[in-house]
């Protein structure tokens, strides 16, 4: 892996920058609501429209990356993210009623993001021949993704201290950093697939892949979506709770939001290093992680101290961190290179679906007590255990999960 360290660094910048460019808005949503006079549901759409747009565009970017090449999709996509960020930044800075134009900019960002992070996963799979190296590489990518989640509430809160729309202005800068790193450092190996392969032949290959692997693929898609739904539901509610119930704002709020995410980041890194190419271990980590998340969320109560709340949410984040690198490895190592881009794009779409659903559903549930919110999230985590038991059953001899 030593000869690919700079490639991995550049690729890891994409999930890091993309996560910063999205999750940094979570701690400042209450401030945005106040500044432009919108409801909590409307503010949640700033997160959700980005994700919904990405969901619709990811399969297209996955197919095009298989056909034209990974780097040829990633660089223009990152430029589009920068353009969308510039639109939202201009609207928030110059307009008295900026909400609709902010959403338009976020939609453009969503289109660009569809060809950024989702294409990173198959790119890592293309770079290495040994499955253990792929798992380690994906662990680094997932760690960068979760590191972005750790840093985003802190950076978002600090930027908002300067002026409320500064997080919007940072998006083009972050995107351009990734553009330069990918352009100069990433050397993607060519796959054996010919560029003139017809769509009908390509589609036949995809159908064959799902025919033989549909059970475990759909299970991994489902689990990825649920994990993101739980994570972003927790973060959205915690952000509001810190401000409304504990009266914490600014960088202090950002630091406390980062605590559960720091545990998630550390666990993701360790999980990626430990699983290797052992699919039985991957399944075990998913089950243990889902169980830990479920139990932790069940015990969250509205009247508990902040210390206990952060302890339980950090425990739940450890569970999520255990599972995520295992899903990445299963989906990347279990699919042939020729179809890897499109198949991993379906997985990324489900993760974005979870990101999109988490904040608005949590906002609607916030009309009830906190225990109701966390009961719903714990139930969703419990579904992961059932899905993994039924849908992921790797044998010791088969390469398929």
TrEMBL record:
Does the keyword ATP-binding feature in the UniProt annotation?
no
Regions crossing the membrane = 7-29, 41-61, 73-93, 99-125, 171-188, 216-238, 250-270, 282-300, 306-330, 372-392
This protein's major location comes to: membrane
Q: Does the keyword Transmembrane apply?
A: yes
A Pfam entry, by short name = MFS_1
Domain Major facilitator superfamily (MFS) profile stretches: 7-396
Question: Where in the cell?
Answer: Cell membrane
Topology relative to the membrane: Multi-pass membrane protein
Q: Which GO terms describe its cellular component?
A: plasma membrane
- InterPro entries in alphabetical order: MFS, MFS_dom, MFS_Efflux_Transporters, MFS_trans_sf, Sugar_transporter_CS, Tet-R_TetA/multi-R_MdtG-like
Q: Which UniProt keywords apply?
A: Cell membrane, Membrane, Transmembrane, Transmembrane helix, Transport
A single GO molecular-function term is: transmembrane transporter activity
Q: Which family does it belong to?
A: Belongs to the major facilitator superfamily. TCR/Tet family.
This chain belongs to the protein called MFS transporter, ACDE family, multidrug resistance protein
Q: Which organism is it from?
A: Salibacterium halotolerans
